[in-house]
Amino acid sequence: MMPALSVQSIQIVFAGIVLLFGIGLVGLMVTRNLIKIVILLQLMAKAAILGMALAGDIAGKPGLGQSLAVTVIVVDTVVAVIALALAVQVQKTWGTLDLNELSTLRR
Amino acid sequence: MWLYLALVAGMVLCGIQAVRAQRLIVAVLWLAGVSVLVAVILYAMNAPLVSAIELSVGAGLVTVIFVFAIGLAGELTRDLPSLIPRPLAWIVSIVAVGWIGWLLWPAAPAPTDAETVTLQTVLWESRAVDMWVQIALILAGVLGILNLVVDAPAGKEAATLERIATPDDEVAA
Fold it and tell me: Contacts of residue B115 in chain A, CB cutoff 8 Å?
């Protein structure tokens, strides 16, 4: 069993969570490829998973934080699978994964 | 403290590389690196079960599905310029994330009288509805994978493409 987290450790992990989330956010804004967008969403979800577990520790309810983290992992995986399935079908039907081209296509 | 510093630095580095990578497959491998480091941090935070799930699902299953999907859809053929100017994206992100960080910055230590309720108890007794929702979501994920591997009917696809090419549709729209 590892010892409880010190304030410095909590702050370091929190800074990492914020940075990882920010990196994902920048990537989402500058990326146009559908699959890359799913990758960046996953990156942000990793930050959320770590944030759930850390918040549970800070609040003195580690069980609750960890159960929410497990829920986020499941939701995140299903979102990735469905988004990738959509991306593959879009690529097969329209021949592109570029968001800009897809947004200008007419029905 | 140094352990956490090293792990967090590695995690952020892998995240930056995942954003910077030109090839999708390389970005996915860096994402798997982030998953592994997140799992190690979770283990160090006394969350071994979540760590094992993250390692097997986040670093294993999701990476395999990404590689499979990239194999089906194809790699990036050229670097697409971003629609939003990069400096603007950086400024917006730094302001948003800095603000969140400033609001939530943890200054108090973790309480020593933490609840001794285990993850299993919370998952199966207190939050049983979550478990049912997760089971439903996993079924949705299975359907998503089926959609990934099954081809659309040839006739339907051809009809869609024909419909795109018909100029009458533009007039009607």
Answer: 60-63
Q: What is the pTM of this model?
A: 0.83
Output the CA torsion sign for B94, B45, B61, B24.
positive
- Give B111's contacts in chain A (Cβ within 8 Å): 59-60
Quote the pLDDT of residue B47: 87
The residue range of the domain holding A60 is 7-94
* Structural domain total, chain B: 1
Contact A104, B162 (CB under 8 A): no
For B144-155, the pLDDT digits (tens) are 777 777 765 555
**Residue A79 distance to chain B (closest CA, Å):** 8
- Indicate yes or no: CB of A70 within 8 angstroms of CB of B137: no
Amino acid at A92: K
Q: Judge: A4–B110 Cβ closer than 8 Å, yes or no.
A: yes
